[in-house]
Design goal:
five-stranded mixed sheet, mainly beta, 7 strands, 8% helix, 2 helices, two-stranded antiparallel sheet
């Protein structure tokens, strides 16, 4: 069974939350691509909608939006991109990346909140201020 670490970014507050998706919840992410929306119930955010913004596999190779499918591919990169930061102007390098589609080989998924539910994120995750 698939298992993912899902990092959910909240654009309003600037906070990020690291959550786990196992078994059936993780299956909601499989087959989705970068830019697609997923129901927040998969990570305990009832009523929320999340957009997949990226991710990486267990070896640290990033998902690349320009590569179709879930497989590994070597891509010639130039300019600053996800997974590549050139050290000098005009530098190019061939980098191994994973395709934009989420598969069971992915270890971490990055997502952003696009639609909010009625409850606050901190309330749903049980991370309220205990003072």
């Amino acid at each position: 069974m698939a298992s993912f670490s899902v990092v959910v970014g909240d654009p309003e507050s600037g906070e990020s939350y690291q959550l786990e998706a196992d078994d059936q919840d993780a299956n909601r992410f499989i087959g989705k691509s970068i830019g697609e929306e997923v129901d927040g119930n998969a990570v305990g955010l009832d009523g929320y909608t999340l957009e997949i913004t990226g991710g990486s596999d267990d070896a640290g190779r990033p998902l690349n939006e320009s590569v179709a499918g879930p497989n590994l591919k070597e891509v010639l990169m130039e300019g600053r991109q996800t997974g590549y930061r050139p050290e000098r102007e005009g530098e190019r390098r061939r980098i191994t990346v994973r395709g934009r589609e989420v598969s069971d080989a992915v270890a971490q998924i990055n997502a952003s909140i696009v639609e909010r539910g009625s409850a606050d994120v901190d309330e749903l995750l049980g991370e309220g201020d205990d003072e």
